[in-house]
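= Paired protein data =
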Amino acid sequence: MLSDSTTAALSAWTSERRRAARVPALSAAVGRAGRVAWTGTVGTGVGTVVGPEHAFRVGSITKPMVAVAVLRLDAAGAVRLEDPVGRYLPDAPAPDATLVQLLTHTAGLPAEPAGAWWERAGGTTWADLAALAPLAAPGGQHHYSNVGFAVLGRLLEQLHGRAWDAVLRDEVWTPLGMAATGRVPAGPHATGFAVHPHADLVHAEPVAGYGAMGPAGEVWSTPSDLVRFASWLVAAGPAGAWDAAHDARTPGGGDAVLPLAARRRMCAPLVVVDEPGAPWTTAWGLGVSVHHEDGVRSAGHGGSVPGFTAAVRADVVTGDVVAACGSSTAGFGEVTSLLRTLADAEPAAAADPFATPSDHDDRADLLDLAGTWYWGPQPFTVRVGADGGLALVADRPGGRASQFARTGPREWVGTVGGYWRGETLRVVERAGRAVALDVGTFCFTRTPYDPDVDVPGGHDAAGWRPLR
């Protein structure tokens, strides 16, 4: 799928990063068009060479997987994301915090549970967590909280009646083909070490059972499985990435796990990470971190626990995905450069970030809406998606762009794109013909200020004329 020169560049990145960071074992994978396109592993474990089939602890990359299961409950009507968690877990810490606030780390909860260092000591109970006092009222600034995702894992257990990892196995990992992912290793796995900062020495790290804190970071996985997950999550690229590549052949995958609109909601930036003296490059969606660096927006997550670090990032436009896992507490650095290495070595095909892949075709009655419309004098293009959704895109760089999901015969609501997200698009008809679009009260016409349309505020009586 990738050229020899591209795979050589990716292998060189992995080897150089492993050498520079002094990581015992480093494993990486790349995804393109919804498929694993390359894997590379360098280093050793205990008496064995580590290969791409070896699992690593991926730490907090557990969190977006938990978030998917929570959004499935919302999609099924079992919860509402805007509800306080106390409605479902009366003994939760910060019971007034909403599920959205827990997912975006704005619930006011502390980062860690009380007591010994839980990532090494393990054994945290729900009673330990229920006794925690919030640091702040819900809805304030972003404050990363492992505790918040332990609460969401408890929510899954209470509403499903089984362990949180059993829910993820049945509803996320198995349908998405993530056979190497689990709360415990499903096959061969790497050993995690602390590497001495001033000598070529290692110290084996313990693998503790996290108890109630497990949903915050106990999962094992491989870079290939992380690529599968992130490819499905962003479903981007010219072919709709994961959905187009897998839906027809993977029962229960794609939209059956979580509809595309909900996945895009997960990856939409909701809360800015405000670090003093630093630019705003990172935000949080629903269980997903969103980065905007060097003109590229990516969605994903990082993870670290004693002995292991991991990261996965997906370009939300091209659908390119990179993932890496290392067996060192100190880590191996960021993976955005691996995403750039892939793009520089072999650019992805042009992609439509507003594509709406679907298994059915509802476009036949909407072709009269496709094409150019004018918001005042400014041209926009309406594109009709395969599921009957509409994309409204300005015909100039950096202009407004939104995607709308169909809610009625001639009505849509904005789902992607900041300005018109949540706003309604209605078709204005005359004698059965579409003459205008009402988009959140703004009037779009087929020609600039079409004189045959009742434009709010009226028309210049002299019409369009030269400026003298």
Summary: The chain has eleven helices and 20 strands. The chain has a mean pLDDT of 90. The chain has two domains: 4-345, 364-445. The longest strand covers residues 296-305.
